[in-house]
Amino acid sequence: MITILKADATKQQRDNLIQWFESQGLKVHISKGEFQTVLGLVGDTSRVDESLVEALEIVERVTRVTESYKAANRKFHPEDTVVEVGDVKIGGGGFAMIAGPCSVESEAQILEIARSVKASGASLLRGGAFKPRTSPYDFQGMRAEGLELLLEAKEATGMPIVTEIMNADHLPLFENVDVIQIGARNMQNFELLKAVGRTNKAILLKRGLANTLKELLMSAEYIMSEGNENVILCERGIRTFETYTRNTLDLSAIPALREKTHLPIVIDPSHATGRASLVEPMALAAAAAGADGIMIEVHNNPEQALCDGAQSLTPAQFDRLAKRVLKVREAIL
Amino acid sequence: MITILKADATKQQRDNLIQWFESQGLKVHISKGEFQTVLGLVGDTSRVDESLVEALEIVERVTRVTESYKAANRKFHPEDTVVEVGDVKIGGGGFAMIAGPCSVESEAQILEIARSVKASGASLLRGGAFKPRTSPYDFQGMRAEGLELLLEAKEATGMPIVTEIMNADHLPLFENVDVIQIGARNMQNFELLKAVGRTNKAILLKRGLANTLKELLMSAEYIMSEGNENVILCERGIRTFETYTRNTLDLSAIPALREKTHLPIVIDPSHATGRASLVEPMALAAAAAGADGIMIEVHNNPEQALCDGAQSLTPAQFDRLAKRVLKVREAIL
Amino acid sequence: MITILKADATKQQRDNLIQWFESQGLKVHISKGEFQTVLGLVGDTSRVDESLVEALEIVERVTRVTESYKAANRKFHPEDTVVEVGDVKIGGGGFAMIAGPCSVESEAQILEIARSVKASGASLLRGGAFKPRTSPYDFQGMRAEGLELLLEAKEATGMPIVTEIMNADHLPLFENVDVIQIGARNMQNFELLKAVGRTNKAILLKRGLANTLKELLMSAEYIMSEGNENVILCERGIRTFETYTRNTLDLSAIPALREKTHLPIVIDPSHATGRASLVEPMALAAAAAGADGIMIEVHNNPEQALCDGAQSLTPAQFDRLAKRVLKVREAIL
Amino acid sequence: MITILKADATKQQRDNLIQWFESQGLKVHISKGEFQTVLGLVGDTSRVDESLVEALEIVERVTRVTESYKAANRKFHPEDTVVEVGDVKIGGGGFAMIAGPCSVESEAQILEIARSVKASGASLLRGGAFKPRTSPYDFQGMRAEGLELLLEAKEATGMPIVTEIMNADHLPLFENVDVIQIGARNMQNFELLKAVGRTNKAILLKRGLANTLKELLMSAEYIMSEGNENVILCERGIRTFETYTRNTLDLSAIPALREKTHLPIVIDPSHATGRASLVEPMALAAAAAGADGIMIEVHNNPEQALCDGAQSLTPAQFDRLAKRVLKVREAIL
What we know:
4 copies of one chain form a homotetramer. Chain A has helices at 11-23, 50-55, 107-119, 144-157, 190-197, 213-224, 253-260, 269-273, 276-288, 315-331, and strands at residues 2-5, 27-32, 37-42, 59-63, 83-85, 88-90, 96-100, 124-126, 161-165, 179-182, 202-206, 231-235, 265-267, 293-297. By secondary structure, chain A is an alpha/beta fold.
């Protein structure tokens, strides 16, 4: 950590600060310039509160050299983490093809879609039971009943399931869920992160609409610091000024996160674009950029989907997408 | 609600859609153009799921004419809502001067600050007990103990208190809290919104970092639709590309929300700017733009504040700010 | 065009507006709802100024059904435009591999890089002579002299060249340039757009940092409406809150623009990401998403490049990238 | 300037870099930490290209301690600059009330508005002759003829005039214009900045829609480094995800720029909000935050304004605004 002092800091102020750093067990290297003094801190600075130091009147700026995330940091864990879900390996070369409807709507619907996407090569089944919706008047999901139907589909097809949790109190209902999803709006619901961190489930953590990659990693750190290291990161579009797509899919997050962390990275082009016609090109692009998986909304009847139908593919469209994604993956081997 | 159909929609498809709308109890007015057909829907469209309709292959676009929020909508409730907290009236001409530290740190600290800001004219005391922090390694607040100290300060000074909740399970601890704050990161934690909607407390709802005014109103609607109409909206800066300030304070939210809703609107310039030197000018601007209150971080020793010290004012700075804010309020009467 | 009137518009006001629309040669279809009246305008609305209509006190909102760009619009020109530059075809299946240094620095430099990227399969040579720089104190390019060196490299290698213009007064210097680039900062320099629209050169138009796809198309329209239809669109990253990458590369622009326009679409991952290590994954992703070309910064000595070295590839890195991009293109055929 | 080296930099690499810095006339202070080495550069680093240094393989990060703008920097010019235009002083306590129509439309229009806003207290007359419009099919202004009419209004009322230039070739037409405006879309049209920098006119430089305060200051620096120090900065809203207002007015730019620069700061609430009903509250807020002037669109017939009518005030509305702004200014004295 580098602390740049203001030009007008007095010797007394400077010495007080240095003493305080040393009292935290840090070594302090001093470099005096014409316009400023720079303090280089050596030791475990991860618990030093940056904003606290920046608050000091004599401090011009603070720059971290080492990141404040440890468990998620590739520096301290150079090998790729492989999250195993049933027979499926995600990360380290293993690719997750996750597909299913936005919402579970009925037994017939979820079973039909599950069988269909499995036949096309999907390895995990997704489906929303608890649905976060902007309006209290929109369909909120089938909730516990939807979870039951998902578990039936899991039993019928053998596919592990991925579904979102919105409330830590619902955890007992998720006992047989394979991958628990934390939605974008809850990425910084720290109480929920800690709660799923105390389970041993795989957690699919979606990037918030306006969260940086660093914040995403800090949220992963919340889960991991409670003991659960089975975290899968998911980019699903960020909020920008562009209005043609629902959000802007940030595919550069794939190689950027790859450098920073050992955790697997999955892309959700359906929510990001909000338009069915853009999903396949973005899925192919995600595969080309090295994603560890993709998450695709598929509905047997997109035009009647109870939510987000605009972005759902038909089973036939998904079949084509899945085949082409595999070809792109081969091309970049 | 206006539904614009694609040029190539067949008569059969169009008739099916019209029938479906009619089955929802809506009247449908048809306007055929050279390039498109437009359906105007009349009746209660608030429960029609926009994304569902936009998903239909024959639909080009959907435009709402009436907003999907009802309880918060000024159209259906033309008079300003006045939220009463103890003797303090917020909205409808009543102005809330809310001040206090970012975090409660000790009995001595909170009592000293409370007395000081009260003497300068603050009407409510703020202080964080449960703190949402980006990093799991940063100070998380004194939690239940902090709440106790806040309640002591309330008793000692008679000031109603405002403090943040992060978990619905903590509600019993908030029994004697006057205003429960929902933080920006939880603005779309719908389960928490519903939980506080089932209380009769005043709720201070902060706008999320990347949420539109419409989404803020929809989140207020979540609280109100559970029966609690004591909602105070709070603008605290949005995330933009600018990095000089922590966030960009959107003061146009004041007159914009004023047109849309009857709920009171409070501004938090401390979190928005993240810099003590910008707090007073932005507080004066908020008052000039017609805010119903301001929320200011004050610390007796900002340089040693355990969090967000960079943006805290000293009691003397707050005293000057409070006097000047009143002068600006008089100027715009 | 749909014009939604406010509920309180009087019959007199409505009739006046309808008359005015009719005087512009439009037919007006009226649909009266319980809360509002909707006017559907049929005819050539491309010259109706949306903001003018929205300004009227009785108007609630205006929605365009047909876009205001004509020449660039795929609706009126369903086939892909193929821009031909020397032997290179861009669009309609033709792929442009554009490579070269950020800035031309010397004869030796540009010749060496040109030969090297040609050997790796590049079809066009890029190089900056006039450089737009945020600071007046940064290197501004070799200007006219740099242009000379580029033309020498063209002669030596036979590669057509792409280079940026910043001032219409410089056009005579660009007589032998094959593709004139309009930089992101000049995307809405309308005087410059009109000037290059009066030439018959191929124009590479870069999307502005905060411009929507619609605005990009309107800027293409400025060029095309002056008679020059040889426009190539270029996505090079947009400005968002994320700071890890220089900008956020919006790859969904490829399929989105594909639907809207017949013009070819090229991706510049070097400027978008600002980091050499992210360039190859993003180039592969662009190819997978169906781009008509990529534009890559290559420098024989990136560490000493006079500008933007951080994002330049070495010739060896470019060679690997070029081969892999071709493989991905084959995979999606 | 601080240069942080990567942990794996060899001694040889480090020594080479240090030598290179020294060859630029800089002194280098070295601070070795456990994980990194930090070089502190002392001397005139304003001409060191940050991106060049960051490009080096051994460099982790570069941090500037002193800003790269000099002429605009308050550090080197502590007193407020006062730009004088006729009898009007802008900055250092002098306040500019600038008003007029978006576009000059006719002699009668501009004369009537000029007289009216002067009577209400406006000190400068604004009016667009050359209009930058997103679409080539929208009204482009009366151009040279509009300039003539503005000059007539100046003569008739004695008010200095402010109007936008879009092309350096038009400069001769601007000989009698008092304040030349550089529009937001041209904020980084560096050729135009340099051209107006070679005049001795007052220049009103508008912040670009997606430009940081630092970039705004760098653009001011382009003008000033050519010899013209009469620069007025203008905040007119930035582009964000919010769609209710046209742009988001960043009023914190006032105190933030005040700290950084000695140049006067003017606010344009009309373009920022795009809604007449929000203009007065934002003008009052600007005054409360300490702006050196405001720029307001006024039209005698906003509903028929040829552009941007939605945001124009009537003369009566402006009269009320002007009186209230003065009251707020008195309140904060």
